[in-house]
Design goal:
Elements lengths: L2 E5 L4 H12 L3 E6 L3 H10 L4 E4 L5 H10 L5 E4 L14 H26 L4 E6 L2 H5 L5 H21 L4 E8 L12 H10 L8 H13 L7 E4 L6
Helix pairs in contact: 1-8, 3-4, 4-6
Amino acid sequence: MKRALVTGGTRGIGLAVCRALCEEGYCVTALYSRSEADANAAKAALPQVNFLRADVADENAVRAVFEALPSLSVLVNNAGIDLYRQVQDTTREEWRRVMDVNAGGAFFTAKYAVGKMKDEGGAIVNISSVWGQTGGSCESVYSASKGAMVAFTKALAKELAPCNITANCVAPGVIDTEMNARLSEEEKRVLTQEIPLARFGRAEEVASAVMFFVRNRYVTGETLSVNGGFYI
């Protein structure tokens, strides 16, 4: 049986990825760390997915999840938190938390995924961001964490290729998800004007990019931008 693990899988991009993997015939486990309401809604939408509560920034919690998995073919690191704040107003604790979840979570899951994949190979797909490629004003910490995921992906691709494990990255632009719900209507209008395709992306469009990397066994170390031309 093909098995997949998706972090941050209860809403937005993560939930869309879970749905796409299920449609491809995978047995999917999805992790979440916060909202039980989101988890309950996700369970109702995709009852075939095994939703588990675990903080990806906690190595012990991640290890326990992987110890319970009999096998693994696909890992999608989608869990992430944002921080919209000027750098001079950012605390050390905020820096650590964003880096621990976004970059640290990808590190911990990849660390334990290798043991499950090395016999038969597999695919690791990390979800970065356009800000990890260009940097975002007032999002320096978030940008740093997502840029780290791009570099981590390239290193993993080289290191894990002998085990027939691919590692790739998807860098979404402005996607219509709850993470962008804080934007005002005016901010949304201005952003839309900066996007050549003149609209926000959909979570399903990011999931489609993830599935390209899942299916293609001869692509590794790449970052695929899904941003409507926002960054070229």
